[in-house]
Structure formats: structure tokens, C-alpha cells
Specification:
The protein has 6 helices and 8 strands. With about 180 residues, it is of the alpha+beta class. The site of coenzyme A has 22 residues, from β5, α4 and α5.
Length: about 180
């Protein structure tokens, strides 16, 4: 499957030119993980994780770059992973690393494309996402796309020295198909 497009953004392969920029974003925990666990990584292991992700459905590595279609600007990156050892579903994640580009709806378009892609490339029925209850921007993306808030996991995530509650969002294949038609452009 080639790059996928919404009106303003596309999901593109993480090419050599993007890798360093994405890694630099990863060096700023308050940019990539203000509401999340953060682990530092060496550039070499970051590159290795990008390489191995294609064959590892549980990999947390970025899988696609988000680019602005009008001029190719690198906006961020997204990933997906099998989230549970027994249950069969995929969680998605997303970062708008270009902080100055936030708030324009690019994150929402990119996550929509990502979920389209997960469904197109897998057999799974459920796609989910989790976010810290204080991560209002992230929750807003999921709600604008129509995912349902299925519950709140109490004290499920440790970051910034404390345990945090996490909202669990999800959609099903049939529901997503309804949400995405016929308004797609
Ligand atoms: C979360 C993130 C991806 C949002 O990207 P974005 O491109 O700005 O998202 P969008 O513009 O598509 O939508 C964001 C929505 O949240 C709203 N929002 C963002 N921060 C907010 C806040 N602090 N309070 C209230 N609303 C907020 C925006 O107004 C917008 O809603 P609207 O369209 O109804 O106005 C970006 O902030 C980011 O990369 N954050 C760090 C990484 C992260 O937290 N990723 C998610 C992990 S679960």
C-alpha cells in the first residue's frame, strides 16, 4: 500500500531524512510524552527499532511519518501495536512533533488515516487508543473521529513520578466503516 492521503496530510514511509528529526523530537520528553511514560534511547537502537518494526506487530516504534501534502513538511509520526498478550486488538498512537503545527486538525486527519490503514492491512475487529485523562488534545482527536470512550483504567500509567488514570477508547471494524462513509473526500 502506498502513501495514504486525507485532504491535508499523508502517512508516508519514515525515510532517512525524517529519522533524525523524529529522533530529535524523542529527545524532548515534554514534546513527545508530556502525559506518558518516557524512555531514552540511543540513535542506533532507535534505527534498529524502525527496521525491526515491520516484522514485529508488538513494536512501539514509529511506523509512518505524517507529512503535510501541500509542501511535504514533516509534521509528526504515528504507530500501532498489538496491545494485549491475549486479547486481539491493536492500539494506535500519534505525535505531532512539529509543535507549531498543532491545533490545525492535522493530528485528527493522521489518526483517521492510521486507523483506515490498520483495518486495511489486518484481520482485527477492534482498534483502540489510550490516553492519560489529562491529555485533553489526544482525547479530543479520538472523540472527533468518533471512537467511543469505553472506560477509564485507574492508576494504569506511571509517569512524572505518579500513577495516572487512563481513558480507553475504541472502535470496531463495522462502526469505523460507518464513521468513514460517505463523508470521505
Ligand atoms: C495530542 C496531539 C497529537 C494533538 O495534535 P493536533 O494536530 O494538535 O490535533 P488536532 O488539531 O487534530 O486536534 C486537537 C484538538 O484538541 C484540542 N486541544 C488541544 N489541547 C487542548 C487543551 N489543552 N485543552 C482543550 N482542548 C485542547 C484542540 O483544540 C483540538 O480540538 P478542536 O478541533 O475541537 O478545536 C499533539 O498535541 C501531540 O503530539 N501531543 C504530544 C504527544 C501526545 O500526547 N500524543 C498522544 C498520546 S495518547
Amino acid at each position: 500500500m502506498g502513501p495514504q492521503r486525507s485532504p491535508r496530510v499523508e502517512l508516508a514511509p519514515i525515510d532517512p531524512g525524517s529519522r533524525e528529526r523524529i529522533f530529535r523530537w524523542y529527545q524532548d520528553p515534554e514534546l513527545v510524552a508530556p502525559f506518558d511514560r518516557y524512555e531514552t534511547e540511543q540513535y542506533t537502537s532507535f534505527l534498529e527499532s524502525l527496521e525491526s518494526a515491520a516484522n514485529d506487530p508488538r513494536s512501539l516504534a514509529p511506523r509512518y511519518a505524517i507529512r503535510k501534502r501541500s509542501d511535504g513538511t514533516l509534521l509528526g509520526c504515528v504507530g500501532h501495536y498489538f496491545a494485549h498478550p491475549v486479547l486481539e486488538y491493536v492500539d494506535v498512537w500519534y505525535v505531532l512533533g512539529a509543535r507549531e503545527e498543532r491545533g490545525h486538525g492535522y493530528g485528527t486527519e493522521a489518526v483517521g488515516l492510521l486507523i483506515d490503514r490498520v483495518y486495511a492491512e489486518s484481520h482485527i475487529e477492534r482498534v483502540g487508543a489510550t490516553c492519560d485523562v489529562d491529555n485533553v488534545g489526544s482525547a479530543r482527536i479520538l472523540e472527533k473521529l468518533g471512537l467511543r470512550r469505553e472506560g477509564t483504567l485507574r492508576s494504569a500509567l506511571f509517569h512524572h513520578g505518579a500513577w495516572h488514570d487512563v481513558h480507553e477508547y475504541g472502535t470496531t471494524r463495522a462502526e469505523w466503516s460507518r464513521l468513514r462513509s460517505p463523508a470521505r473526500s
